[in-house]
């Protein structure tokens, strides 16, 4: 099974420029601490920024898996994120479990909550489902705020959660590796061209036409629950990590802003493409953080970023990453394989590319 | 007890009227263009700031008279809606996700602009009409009566516009079936542009009514945004009648909650969301939304 899965990758990286860029990107991320160590004396701040960026990348891509691929556009993805953060915080504060135990348990818990709460959403159509999912985290956050402070910390949240590692570099590498593995798994789960995993193809079918997908014998309800479970799982990981990295869980982790941020990042990078979410987060979050470092620009930072988003979206309505991919890659019309844009014929089947 | 009930009814009528203006604008735009305009209440906020700026001024007063300011605000916001549609939304209308992102970015950009530009804000603004009157032994501010009257007038005008004029017929045609409408010679793009203008002008009217006796704040677009989305979904997306009735249902819920827990204002949102949640579980297409049999999941 594992060998067949590995064979599914086909190891074709060099002929596809998009994958070359992805590999270069990850290599750069892996050597980032070396660069910052050499350039800046105190690089903890920058590494923390990139650690949080990695965590948000997992979160954004998990939204893309649910909303981009299976088409269940959710305005309340912060639900699983916040649940992951709260469960890992409670596990530490009540039972003093180490992060190696809190994060997996929190992830499973967030997944279960995601699956249970998606059940009423299954019979809804496109815009209604967004509003229904938006309701849940807002309601949950206000319940937490109203409960007595000893239970879940009230509106102050649960502070004093220990960090993942003793140094900023250690935390960064943990989050980076978790991010890389999660994104790889989500990419495989949604790969419509895979020969062994059918979920990607089925998610596409459900998004394009759910009734037609049903008519071909796909149990669409089961696959929609599966999409909610997958995306809840990865959002839960992100939530559990953020509780450890920012030293606490707060009702703000359920806020509408977190849910909308996921949408902003993914749509900016390119929806229905796993890498779009990663590109969106790594393009927007560090810029916002960098701008807030300077006193003169700090008040204008959100304005600058929103104007950038509007202008770029006008010219690349499908997202930055997808726009770049379409410039450097061309899909073979016969075998659907990616090719370098300047090739005249397909590298596999020899069909002419135009 | 009777006094409380009377208070709740008055609050429902006033708040419901304002929500009805906002929600009908949003429902119109959604119905015609399938655009969920998340910047809708940001235009409402901009109108409120604009009106205050024209009448009161923040640092120095422009000192315009009230009717002048109202006219300039409503017409200006209508034009702004047309321009935003023409230059921003028209070219990305086909990309649903991009529309979501661009509208919410417009909202956030307006919020930031207003926060930076108008940092000092007068705390309470004067009412449009001072004084109280009493109906059936219940004291009511004349201002609240005015709000209810204006809302009723605007809704009647809007209904006449939609049913009796050529523009209204083309708006309804496009919202029924955009392809067929363009086949019979209606410009979908232009109809949408006009609808967007009407929607933002309605939001401007709502904003002027709320600023009277209230205050402006750069985050004031977010709570009504959530409420208006809830209302539109509750009534059935795209249904004008549904959003109108939904506005009063949600306003009633809000008035009751505010009466029970006066110190916890944000709970009204939670209860409104809970009402919507129950509604969607019972009727997946909202109160007056249409769902074809073959579309049922």
What is the secondary structure topology, with strand pairs?
The complex is a heterodimer of chains A (354) and B (297).
Chain A: H1 2-9, H2 17-39, H3 44-69, H4 78-95, H5 99-118, H6 126-146, H7 149-152, E1 158-159, H8 168-189, H9 199-208, H10 210-215, H11 220-245, E2 248-249, H12 256-269, H13 274-291, H14 301-315, H15 320-328, E3 329-331, E4 338-340
Helix pairs in contact in A: 2-8, 3-8, 3-11, 3-12, 3-13, 4-5, 4-11, 5-11, 8-11, 9-11, 12-13
Chain B: H1 2-33, H2 40-55, H3 66-89, H4 96-117, E1 132-135, E2 138-141, H5 142-164, H6 166-176, H7 178-183, H8 188-211, H9 222-235, H10 240-260, H11 267-282
Antiparallel strand pairs in B: 1-2
What key attributes describe this structure?
heterodimer; A: 354 residues; mainly alpha; two-stranded antiparallel ribbon; 4 strands; globular; B: mainly alpha; ABC transporter involved in vitamin B12 uptake, BtuC; 11 helices
Descriptive overview:
The complex is a heterodimer of chains A (354) and B (297). The model of chain A has no long low-confidence stretch (mean pLDDT 89). In chain A, 68% of the residues lie in helices and 3% in strands. In chain A, helix 2 packs antiparallel against helix 8 (168-189). Chain A has a domain at 42-279. In chain A, the strands form two sheets. Chain A has a two-stranded antiparallel ribbon. In chain A, strands 3-4 form a two-stranded antiparallel ribbon. Chain A has 354 residues and is mostly helical. With 297 residues, chain B is mainly α. Chain B has one domain (2-295): ABC transporter involved in vitamin B12 uptake, BtuC (Orthogonal Bundle), CATH 1.10.3470. Chain B is built from eleven helices and two strands; from the N terminus they run ααααββααααααα. Chain B has helices at 2-33, 40-55, 66-89, 96-117, 142-164, 166-176, 178-183, 188-211, 222-235, 240-260, 267-282; strands at residues 132-135, 138-141. In chain B, helix 2 (40-55) runs antiparallel to helix 3 and helix 10 (240-260) crosses helix 11. Chain B is globular, with a radius of gyration of 19 Å. Chains A and B meet through helix 6, helix 12 and helix 14 of A and helix 4, helix 9 and helix 11 of B.
């Amino acid at each position: 099974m594992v060998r067949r899965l590995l064979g599914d990758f086909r190891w074709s990286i060099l002929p596809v420029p998009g994958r070359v860029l992805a590999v270069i990107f990850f290599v750069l991320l892996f050597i980032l601490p070396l660069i910052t160590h050499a350039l800046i004396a105190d690089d903890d701040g920058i590494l923390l920024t990139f650690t949080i960026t990695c965590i948000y990348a997992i979160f954004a891509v998990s939204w893309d898996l649910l909303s981009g691929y299976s088409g269940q556009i959710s305005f309340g993805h912060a639900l699983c994120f916040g649940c992951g953060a709260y469960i890992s915080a409670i596990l530490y504060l009540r039972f003093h479990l180490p992060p190696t135990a809190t994060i997996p348990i929190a992830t499973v818990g967030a997944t279960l909550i995601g699956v249970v709460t998606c059940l009423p959403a299954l019979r809804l159509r496109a815009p209604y489902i967004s509003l229904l999912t938006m309701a849940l985290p807002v309601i949950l956050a206000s319940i937490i705020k109203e409960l007595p402070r000893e239970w879940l910390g009230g509106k102050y949240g649960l502070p004093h959660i220990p960090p993942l590692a003793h140094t900023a570099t250690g935390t960064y590498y943990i989050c980076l590796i978790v991010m890389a593995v999660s994104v790889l798994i989500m990419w495989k789960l949604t790969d419509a061209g895979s020969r062994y995993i059918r979920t990607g193809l089925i998610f596409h079918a459900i998004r394009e036409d759910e009734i037609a997908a049903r008519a071909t014998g796909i149990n669409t309800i089961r696959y929609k629950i599966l999409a909610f479970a997958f995306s809840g799982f990865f959002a839960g990981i992100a939530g559990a990590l953020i509780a450890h990295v920012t030293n606490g869980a707060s009702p703000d982790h359920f806020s509408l802003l977190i849910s909308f941020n996921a949408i902003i990042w993914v749509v900016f990078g390119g929806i229905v493409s796993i890498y779009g979410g990663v590109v969106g987060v790594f393009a927007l979050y560090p810029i916002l953080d960098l701008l807030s470092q300077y006193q003169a620009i700090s008040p204008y930072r959100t304005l600058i970023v929103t104007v950038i988003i509007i202008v770029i979206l006008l010219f690349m309505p499908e997202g930055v990453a997808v726009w770049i991919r379409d410039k450097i890659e061309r899909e073979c019309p016969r075998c659907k394989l990616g090719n370098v844009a300047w090739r005249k014929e397909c590298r596999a089947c020899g069909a002419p590319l135009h | 007890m009777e006094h409380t009930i009377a208070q709740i009814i008055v609050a429902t009528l006033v708040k419901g009227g304002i929500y009805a203006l906002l929600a009908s604008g949003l429902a119109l735009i959604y119905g015609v263009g399938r655009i969920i305009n998340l910047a809708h209440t940001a235009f409402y906020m901009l109108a409120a700031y604009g009106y205050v700026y024209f009448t009161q001024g923040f640092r120095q007063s422009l000192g315009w008279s009230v009717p002048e300011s109202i006219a300039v605000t409503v017409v200006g916001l209508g034009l702004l809606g047309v321009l935003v549609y023409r230059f921003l939304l028209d070219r990305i209308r086909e990309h649903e996700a991009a529309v979501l992102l661009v509208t919410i970015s417009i909202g956030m950009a307006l919020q930031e602009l207003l926060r930076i530009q108008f940092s000092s804000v007068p705390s309470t603004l004067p009412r449009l009409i001072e004084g109280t009157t009493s109906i059936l032994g219940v004291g009511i501010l004349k201002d609240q009566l005015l709000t209810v009257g204006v809302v009723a007038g605007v809704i009647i005008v809007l209904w006449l516009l939609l049913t009796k004029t050529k523009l209204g017929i083309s708006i309804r045609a496009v919202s029924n079936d955009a392809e067929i409408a363009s086949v019979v010679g209606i410009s979908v793009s232009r109809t949408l542009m006009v609808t967007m203008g009407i929607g933002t002008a309605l939001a401007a009217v709502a904003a002027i009514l709320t600023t009277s006796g209230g205050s402006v704040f750069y985050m004031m677009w977010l709570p009504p945004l959530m409420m208006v989305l809830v209302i539109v979904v509750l009534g059935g997306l795209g249904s004008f009648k549904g959003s109108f009735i939904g506005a009063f249902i949600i306003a009633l819920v809000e008035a009751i909650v505010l009466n029970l827990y006066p110190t916890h204002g944000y709970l009204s949102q939670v209860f409104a969301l809970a009402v919507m949640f129950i509604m969607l579980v019972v009727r997946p297409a909202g109160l007056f939304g249409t769902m074809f049999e073959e579309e049922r999941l």
